[in-house]
């Protein structure tokens, strides 16, 4: 009997490691946050912010430095080089040369080099870049919507075409055949 009570005590009252495990809260695994897709309007917002900073009177280097936190890592490196060169007093055409290599910063670099030579305002070019970026995103969204409508029409056609044939065309053809068969 005492052996049975001892076994029951071991099962009901485990050793210190299991007891501590019971008292300690369980580590719940937090789900990994899903990587959000990049914001399609981020480039437009960045160029708008740059235009606003330039219109407010910031020098080009200061305005570009102000928008750097919102720029993706690849283009940000190129723009950081531009800011450093402009801060050191480099020729704007030379400073923007590195940004021409990246596709996201190339339009701004071309506009900045052009405005540095002609003396025109870079803010207008940055606003134009923002408008182009928004138009590009809008065109892509419209193309995806049109593609989705085509993809939706296929299954609908597969559902309705047999019903149309069975309920619309077949009775008419059978009626015509029956009418022609009576005439012969």
UniProtKB/TrEMBL annotation:
Superkingdom: Bacteria
Q: Which Pfam families match?
A: T2SSF (PF00482)
TM stretches of this protein = 150-178
Q: Which UniProt keywords apply?
A: Cell membrane, Membrane, Signal, Transmembrane, Transmembrane helix
Q: Which GO cellular component terms are attached?
A: plasma membrane
Where is this gene product found? Cell membrane
For the keyword Cell membrane, the answer is yes
Protein known as: Type II secretion system protein F (GspF)
């Amino acid at each position: 009997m005492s052996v049975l009570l001892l076994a029951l005590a071991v099962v009901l009252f485990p050793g210190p490691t299991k007891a501590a495990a019971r008292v300690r809260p369980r580590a719940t695994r937090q789900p990994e946050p899903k990587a959000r897709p990049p914001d399609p309007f981020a480039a437009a917002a960045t160029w708008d912010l740059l235009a606003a900073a330039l219109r407010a009177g910031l020098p080009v280097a200061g305005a570009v430095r102000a928008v750097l936190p919102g720029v993706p890592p690849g283009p940000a490196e190129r723009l950081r080089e531009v800011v450093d060169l402009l801060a050191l007093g480099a020729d704007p055409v030379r400073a923007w040369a590195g940004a021409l290599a990246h596709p996201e910063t190339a339009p701004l670099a071309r506009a900045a080099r052009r405005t540095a030579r002609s003396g025109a305002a870079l803010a207008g070019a940055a606003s134009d870049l923002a408008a182009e970026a928004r138009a590009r995103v809008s065109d892509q969204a419209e193309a995806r919507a049109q593609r989705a409508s085509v993809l939706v029409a296929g299954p609908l056609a597969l559902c309705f075409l047999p019903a149309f044939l069975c309920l619309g065309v077949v009775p008419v053809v059978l009626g015509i055949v029956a009418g022609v068969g009576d005439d012969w």
